[in-house]
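TEACHING EXERCISE
Course module: macromolecular assemblies
Task: Read the component lines below, then compare them to the predicted structure of the full complex.
Student: A.B.
Group: 4
Components provided:
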Amino acid sequence: MPLTVRDLSESALLERIFPRLARAEAAVVGRGDDAAVLAAPDGRTVISIDTLVQDKDFRLLRENGFATTGYDVGWKCAAQNLSDINAMGARATSLLVSLTLPGETPVEWVEALADGLTDAIEQLGATGCGVIGGDLGGGTEIVVTAAVTGTLEGRAPVLRSGARPGDVVALAGTAGRAAAGLALLESGTDIEDLGEEELGLIATQCRPEPPLEAGPEAARAGARAMLDISDGLIRDAGRIATASSVAIDFDPEALSELARPLRTAGRLLGKSPLEWVLGGGEDHGLLAVFGPEITLPPRFTAVGSVSAGTPRVTVGSQAPASIGWDHFAH
Amino acid sequence: MPLTVRDLSESALLERIFPRLARAEAAVVGRGDDAAVLAAPDGRTVISIDTLVQDKDFRLLRENGFATTGYDVGWKCAAQNLSDINAMGARATSLLVSLTLPGETPVEWVEALADGLTDAIEQLGATGCGVIGGDLGGGTEIVVTAAVTGTLEGRAPVLRSGARPGDVVALAGTAGRAAAGLALLESGTDIEDLGEEELGLIATQCRPEPPLEAGPEAARAGARAMLDISDGLIRDAGRIATASSVAIDFDPEALSELARPLRTAGRLLGKSPLEWVLGGGEDHGLLAVFGPEITLPPRFTAVGSVSAGTPRVTVGSQAPASIGWDHFAH
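Instructor-supplied answer key:
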């Protein structure tokens, strides 16, 4: 029998978690008081909150035997929160993590979650960021909520509302990989039968890698609008279109390029790779809009253009539905 | 059949929630982007996170027919988070609220939760504070997490570690009322049979009223240590004692005074009111330590004293156990 959460007091569990957590450089007062105090050198704090729920946002164990580890959940929690700060053109400074844990959760699983948080922060390049506070409690299912803070380092935040006709739409990071990975997991395909390319897609689903340098770089380069792709290119581009009152058209060639690494998985499952690119979230790529005169920052690739007109998103000037994309299916 | 969460899209549900939420004055960028941006005029942000879980921190319906309303949960969520900011001597500036909701949750319950958040912010006096962001998702039980931010307005934060021998220990707000209210709810006593005094105790359990002016006032008056009482006088005083390396002794007369309004409930349930005062949390009163030369701010009453010695908490120089307090029972 593994040691479980109910075998330990709250303070004993915290003693096992704390040493595994990265320290936040911006902490004026760290963990252990009623609240933490965070430096905000430019007089502003960027802040967001995001939750992962067992059997909704991750499955502990799938029918094909694939187990989501605590490490994966910790990594994903950090990644998706850090991505929200990135999408404002800011640099993450701290996380506060609230864990709701059933008594039967193995302590090892929780320790792995702490390791996943720390490794995501370090390996994704969120230098100086750390866990500054948290909360621990019981429940019937695992719920992991993180609040994340960031600093704009004196820059203006990059909102969704600044796109103008004539602008270039560009992507940093990937699109559709996490959705293809999820489809592979849900297909019940035996993990043993998958090749390296497919395992890579599953890895993107479990441990997404938002391009954390790209957000501040885009802001410095003068990006006029930006968000992180969490619900798919079409939906998320639609949010920029609506907020900016512009039309966005994607370049079919660029989308084909994004779909290329998903072809084998598509053949295996009998699915269209383009569907994953258009509708899949969770890679946490950055979609940014730049003026036509701007040289795109190194991590960005042009994928579309902005024009005047009723807010809408098209692909090669065609409605997504006409190329087989059904938004109700996503 | 009431309208439930699963009958509405996420955006339709948000449209019902947003108009009910107070706006944060410190919002540079408010809701609707990847993250919010909060003003931090003195270059620091105080921050904390706290979670309420159905059937752990609140029961939707008790055997005696007492239903915890969405309003109560919203109020309590705001109150306990605002209290953490208060306990640092700071003023709350914003909340971010993440809701995990089963599909069968009535939309009315969620709307009432939003009203409870807003009313707590306003009626407890957290002027200028509002809900600056959030997250919405599904689960099998209701989980409400809030992150809260605050500003020190240029003051030093009041930590737990500054108490010195000779200092006075003082309390703002109440102690033991919420615990007595919970005991009444758990006793199965018919609500109809309870008098106004007992209903008042239940109200403190469901809608605690942390004294939000008292934290900044204590900081301005020079409080050397402070925390909010969430686990009872003995345990929470023990945290100051440990962090400050001092001994704390409570004045039995002052504790009797705190127990007085709990006597009827104690008689009804055959319990000692003093137990509730010593071991009960959730009133979110403030326990602060002042130098002996300080005139206590108006909301504070002296309840004990600090002396040199091994960190410990006594009542009239006696160990709490010797007066019948069993910390394992709490």
